[in-house]
Amino acid sequence: MVTETKNENMDDLISDFSRFYILTILYEGPTHGYRVISRFKKRVKKEVSPSLVYPFLKQLEAKGLVKHTKKPVGEKERKVFEFTSEGRELCTGLFKRFAELVSIAIEPSLYVCAHCGCKVYEGGYHETIDGKETTFCCMHCARSYKEMKKLAKKAAQK
Ligand SMILES: [Zn+2]
Description:
The chain is an alpha+beta fold and about 160 residues long. The chain is built from 5 helices and 7 strands. The longest helix is centred in the middle third of the chain and has 22 residues, at about 85-105. The structure holds zinc ion (ZN). Zinc ion binds next to loops.
């Protein structure tokens, strides 16, 4: 939805990343600009400039992806922004695409449980079975796996 030119410099890349984060914050529910900034700082451990946040919100609103209502927050009246249904839909699509990219990037470091086939992101349970280092999500899966192996061996001996 936001098309970028290819000769973007590092600053632009970072601000794209910032925009992406702003979208994830908005996605959680209605929020005012100031809260976007404070949440951003908490999560990304980096300041985001109001001169990025407010124009970006305006841009999104101009495209019909975000709308605002004025609500009293404390003593002040603030603009509370939220996604329109169209904006929300677009964002869901964007996050899905992003999630796919991320899972492709981390795939080589993933283990798969030899018993249940679930993905093991870190740690897991390792055991050497028949001289082979085998990964499981948990020790229960390892036990089931060994029992099945034993049964299979018995069946083969008959
Ligand atoms: Zn398992």
